[in-house]
Amino acid sequence: MSIQSTIKRITAPDIRALKGQEPIVSLTAYHAHTARIIDPYVDFMLVGDSLGMVMHGFDSTVPVPLELMIMHGAAVVRGSAKALVVVDMPFGSYEESCEVAFRNAARIMKETGCGAIKLEGGAYMAETIAYLSDRGIPVMAHVGLTPQAVNVMGGFKTQGRQKSEWAAIEADAISVSEAGAFAIVLEGMAEPLAEKITKLVDVPTIGIGASSACDGQILVLEDMLGLSPRVPRFVKEFGQIGAAIEGAVELYADEVRARNFPGEAHVYGMKASASSKAKGKPSSKAKSEVVGGKGRTSAKSK
Description:
Strand order of the largest sheet: 1-2-3-4-5-6-7-8
Structural class: alpha/beta
Largest sheet: 8 strands, parallel, barrel
Order of helices and strands: HEHEHHEHEHEHHEHEEHHHEE
Helix content: 25-40%
CATH topology: TIM Barrel
CATH architecture: Alpha-Beta Barrel
Oligomer: single chain
CATH class: Alpha Beta
CATH superfamily: Phosphoenolpyruvate-binding domains
């Protein structure tokens, strides 16, 4: 019996029920190996379209195709057993209409096995969120700094640092909450605004560059592990894995060039041939001699 069949996976309603309770822990995950490592410690893992920048070298999340999200999402589901897996809907896969959004969201859920999808946008996406939720697709919303709109925003700019911006962002959060989103990511947002929104809405808020008062927090795994060359101000590096990897690779290169690796413990010797096995043990009159480090029997007469 597989471990997946013995552990009850967290669901979207479970996350929704944590509003105002114990803080929700989340990280991004892009492949099975890291999903397996973080699974015992997080409530949900997000297969974010940030994988386009982190893993594939894009300048933004805009170029990420649906097929790439499905491939990584399926890997994360296979590598995890407990945490809810949420998969981002990439740019262009849901904005056109409710019907297009449903078709692509249903495909993501069918082909990955994930438990929910996430899409960006405020009040203008409320109808789509309601349409998906009514048809059995749990939706996590995302307001504030929305990376897929980077070309409209003119860059990755913090939202709500002027009081005049607050009303529109508050309205976005309330709209997606009332439309049926089970949680809302608040990204790149002035701390007092994120705290206020958390009190205003009935669903959990998940902060990333927002407020410690949010109902939960999420970071890009590679950022918090020290694997990214540059990180935003809101990231705390809880590890320095990048430096450890570089040190290990340098040591490997040195040992290969010095012919110290592979050593005796890392290579395979020969097995006895079938013909020698068929001959069996030498008779008592035979004398064994070792040739070339391998046992070879030669019979010498008395």
